[in-house]
Amino acid sequence: MSEPDKNASDSELRARLGSLKAALGKAEKNEKPGASQAGPDGAFAGAMSSGLRAATDLAGGIIAGALIGVLADRWLGTSPFLLIAFLVIGAIAGLRSVYRLGSRPTSGSKGGAPKE
């Protein structure tokens, strides 16, 4: 890395620093708050993220319910009954989680549905 020029005066350095601050301020004003630079690719990534989260929430609820049911059946000796019960409970919990994910407002909508 090169060392700064020791012959440059303090006023020249202050002028360069001032112009840099002005350029940074102008660049920050041009950026809109909350706007993403990604464009359509960012929208696709957001949709994929939501879809994968919904799938894992649903699968996680079903798997967790089945696991709890199998363990409870082994512990209590009630072979298929608790497995079926907790499998249904896990599926309901997974579907509820997916419903809650789908019913929350998206970042693009302002105030919900358009007024007529």
What features would you describe in this structure?
The chain has helices at 10-30, 40-76, 81-103. With 116 residues, it is mainly α. Helices cover 70% and strands 0% of the residues. Helix 2 (40-76) runs antiparallel to helix 3. The termini are far apart.
Task: Characterize the biggest β-sheet.
Answer: none
Q: How many DSSP-defined strands? A: 0
Multimeric status of the protein: single chain
Strand content: under 5%
- What class, by secondary structure content? mainly alpha
Count of alpha and pi helical runs: 3
Q: How far is it from the N-terminal to the C-terminal residue, by CA?
A: 64 Å
- Fraction in helix: 55-70%
Residue ranges: pLDDT <50 for 5 or more in a row? none
Overall 3D shape = elongated
- As a whole number of angstroms, the C-alpha radius of gyration is 28 Å
SSE order, as H and E? Answer: HHH
How would you state the average pLDDT, rounded?
Answer: 82
Secondary-structure map:
Blueprint: H1 10-30, H2 40-76, H3 81-103
Task: Give a short overview.
It contains three helices and no strands. With 116 residues, it is an all-alpha fold.
Descriptive labels:
116 residues, mainly alpha
